[in-house]
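Feature request disguised as a bug: please show the residue count (493) next to Similar to GTP-binding protein in the output. Example input:
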Amino acid sequence: APRWLCRKKRSHVAATGVCAAVFQRSGVWRSPRMLHSETSGAASDDRKSALLQKPGSASKLLEACLSADGCLETSLGPETFSEVLETLCRQNATKHARTLINALCKGQSHSTVFAADEHIMRVLPTYVDLVRRERDLEALNVIREALEQGKFGHALQKVTLVEQVYLSSVQLAIEREQLEEAVATMKALRRFARRPSTPCPPPGESSDGSESLTSNFDAVAQQFESERTERFCKTMRMFSKARDFRGLFLTMDAVQLCGLSLSAAVLDCLAQCAVREVSFVTGAVSMDTMPDGRFPEAAFFGRSNVGKSSLVNMVIGRKALAKTSKTPGKTKQYNFYLVNEGDPTNAFYLVDLPGAGYAKVSKGQRLEWERMFGSYVRERKKLRVLFHLIDSQTGPLEEDARLMSSLAGTLPVNEGRGKTQGNRALHYVVVLTKIDKQDGSVPPSVFDRLEQVLESTGLLSSREIPVLTTSAQTKAGREAVWQYLRLLHKHWR
Ligand SMILES: Nc1nc2c(ncn2[C@@H]2O[C@H](COP(=O)(O)OP(=O)(O)OP(=O)(O)O)[C@@H](O)[C@H]2O)c(=O)[nH]1
Ligand SMILES: [Mg+2]
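Example output, currently without the count:
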């Protein structure tokens, strides 16, 4: 009948439509050869263009091909398939496009035909964008499932596609205020990214062994990097707007697991999202003048001029909130900054301490400083993280050793995470600052000396102590500081 129709009416499009109907109805003509003979020439240029003019009919045929196991490649080829799909997407013919993609994703053998196919990979992102715009979560889920079952290849395009599909689903869920669902989907992306075979082979290695992929990897990775980064940042902004910081930090994890660097853009976005508002609360001169301990807090302490105030500014992404100065002794009080005041579940204090000791300070003042510091560490029940800042050029000096000795008796044991003093977990973190002054590195001798001092003061014996390196000038080390600030709230981890 189709052949007859085709000859009689000279209409390939009509013929293909009939073909489709016959295949679908009867299920008889399943042989690829048969299909090929009926639609032979469909791949030839004029027939193809005829098909492309009527993508609706073409899609019917293609759908029939897909349900007639394995015929597509012999009859029309993936190129035509993706061209029709592209035309459908361009014309916003979502319904037809969706039918085709669903048939492809749910099919068995065809998926392998398309597994490593570049054509389909080229079109799918456009399709994903289309269904995302139409807020069709179900259509996204169909692709997600197919990807999770490994139906498509492992090319980098797939990696970006996986992210695009997951992040689109997450964004849709946030828009619908289904935050639990959004978080669950982000966790699924994290799991997916952790799988050994997917998604991202390191540069120079190919997960499917194809050489062209290996050689192109860097170029392709670069081409997609900004687009991928922007997608993650957009998701972070949406989580932050919905005041769901769990999702925000999960997205951060996913950025790294998906093989993207924590670029300045990502970290700026994190700082903006996690610090929605910040205000100076008070400059306390005694324990009584400190604000009430409603929110968890992190404190920055160390010798004068090591860069405490500068680090506070860098971490929260504000240029001059905490006052800095070349002259040691600028900060004279315990300066409390309250972050996210309007959002109690995500609020916290950052405390910028006055410098511990410098040349002009008298012995009495020094003892007074130490006494207050001791009370602060012991009595502030919501103090969760203590950052001890040390200049990376000098390494720990005498004053630092004294501070460490005094802390050795006060800090909880076990990696600094132990629960002593009534369920209290207090993390002690060493931060080597101003690493830009030596081209971003720290001399090994400084690390050696630090280890020596930590050991001699007894701090190392009962716990592991993380050592971070930072620069307020180049903003190096921001992400590491944030990983510790993340410990402030349980639900952020
Ligand atoms: N090159 C460089 N300079 C820095 C860095 N961090 C801070 N500084 C400079 O070091 C000086 C002291 O910085 P502050 O942040 O005021 O130090 P502080 O520890 O708060 O000092 P006090 O409040 O006096 O205890 C300033 O001139 C800063 O510009 C850094 O990472 N790199
Ligand atoms: Mg200061």
